[in-house]
Prior knowledge:
Elements: H1 13-44, H2 60-85, E1 96-103, E2 106-110, E3 116-117, E4 120-123, E5 128-134, E6 139-143, E7 148-152, E8 158-162, E9 168-174, E10 186-192, H3 194-202, H4 217-225, E11 251-256, E12 259-264, H5 267-275, E13 280-282, H6 299-311
Parallel strand pairs: 1-5, 4-10
Antiparallel strand pairs: 1-2, 2-3, 5-8, 6-7, 6-9, 9-10, 11-12, 11-13
Helix pairs in contact: 1-2, 4-6, 5-6
Amino acid sequence: MTSKAIPDASNFVKGVDTSFEVILGIIFFFLIAITATMIYFVFRYRKERNPVATQIHGSVSLEILWTVIPTLLVMVMFYYGWMGYKPMKEVPDDAFVIKSVGRMWNWQFEYENGKKTDTLYVPLNRAVKLDLKALDVIHSLYIPSFRLKQDVVPGKKQMMWFIPGREGEFDLFCTEYCGLRHSSMQTSVIVMPQDKFDSWYIDTTATAPLISDKPGALGLVIVKKNGCLACHSLDGSKLVGPSWKALFGKTETVITKGQTREINVDTAYVINSIYNPNDDIVKGYSKGLMLSYKNELTEDDIDEIIEFMKTLSN
Length: 314
C-alpha cells in the first residue's frame, strides 16, 4: 500500500526548491572537491618531497578549462533560477485579487466585496493575486511555505500571486526590517476549500465580530484592526508614539511649527492627531513616523476610539 503524496503548499514550491537544490549541490561539490585538492597539494608538494620550488609558466588548456566549466555551471544555475522565477510574474487573468496593505507594524487585507481582515484568507487550488501597497516604509511580504517573498516599496506598484495547493494555516510575516516592532509584524495565511471560502466570503457578519456592551469595546476592535497598538501602549510604557494610558483629558506638551506649547487632549485634538499627525508632535517623540488616517478612519470610528481611550483614564 503506497502513501498518498502530500501536495505542495503552493504552485511555486517545486520550482524554487529545484533551483535551491541544484545550486546547493554545485556548491557542495566544489566545497568537497576544492578542499580535497588543497589537502592533496599540502601532502604532495610539501617541502620534503619538493625541496626546490618549480616555476610554472601557465597552461592554456587549464585556463580554458577553468573558464568554460564555471561559465557553464553559472548558466545552469541561472536557467533553474529563471525557470523558477519567470512564472511568478505571469498572473492568470482570472486570479482572485486581494489588496494587501503593509504599515508599521501590521498587515491588512481588503477583498473586492469590501471585507477587511488582518489574516489572509484564500481559496484552495485557485489563483490568488495580492496587490501590494506600503503606507510608510519598505516592508516585505514573505510566506515561507509558499516560497514567496516580495518587497513592498511606498509609492510603487507591486504584486505577487500563487495557487494554494494545501489546506491549512501558514506563516506570513515581514522580512524587511521596518522599525522598532518589526518582529511583531506577522500573521497567517488560511487556505480553505472553495466552498468554505465562499461561505466565509459572503458572510458579512464575519466583518463585524461580536462586540460586548462594555464601554469602548468597539473602539478597541477598531484600533486593533488598524494597528494602532503597535505604536501606542495601553500601560504607560513608551513606544513609537505616546501611551494612551490616562491620555484623554490630559495636558500634553507639544511642538507646533517649531513652537512649544501646552494643549489639552480632547476630541478635537485626537481627530486632528489622527488626520494630521505631524501638526502637533508630543515633546520627546519624533515627527514623520505616523501617516494620516484620513482615508482609513471616519469621525464615527474616531468617536469609538475616544470612548475606548476614556476607559484607560480609570
